[in-house]
Amino acid sequence: MANVSDIRNGLIIEFKNGIYEIVEFLHVKPGKGAAFVRTKLRNMQTGKVLENTFRDKDVLVEVRVEKHKKQYLYRDGDYLYLMDNETYEQMPVSVDIFGEKIKFMTENIDIALLIDDRGDILGIELPITVIQEITEAEPNVKGNTASGGGKTAKTETGLAITVPFFVEVGTKIKIDTRDGSYIERV
User: pLDDT tens for residues 51-74?
Assistant: First the structure.
């Protein structure tokens, strides 16, 4: 249990039959009346963000979340197989848990599973950057320069990304997993 005064970024709570992370908050103490907190909450399973106001008297159910480091091995149908780096134990995890993040995952990448105190998998945490190879890209046209725009390309996992004109098929690039943007050639 947590009080409204305990609200902070990153706090994970049970709310409206789901698990939510507080991504933004603002404590408001009006001249008249009780204090309250305006928040933006992100659903840990769906990623959907909603806004909610908590009154000073509201009680929040805090959820403890642990990060378990795993290595992605391979995909078999609707399951991804992950391996614990310490025990070498493999576990199948449903593709549904990964959502759009699956497009950043290549074999042998290290990730962190977010598991709540009931043992349910809430989601995953990717490294900040990943390296992938370009498999499809528009051809270069004479006159295109490195500055001023880009072209759309696809990576080995099917991720569509805007890259500079000089990037060609077979080029390895570094990608920011937070926003899916091109960083540099590798």
Answer: 999 998 888 889 898 999 999 999
Does one domain contain both 133 and 181?
yes
Domain with residue 135: its CATH number is 2.40.50.140
Distance in angstroms (rounded) separating the CA atoms of residues 19 and 179: 23
- For the chain, how many structural domains are there in total? 3
* Sequence letter at residue 145: T
| Residue numbers of the domain that contains 162 | 129-185
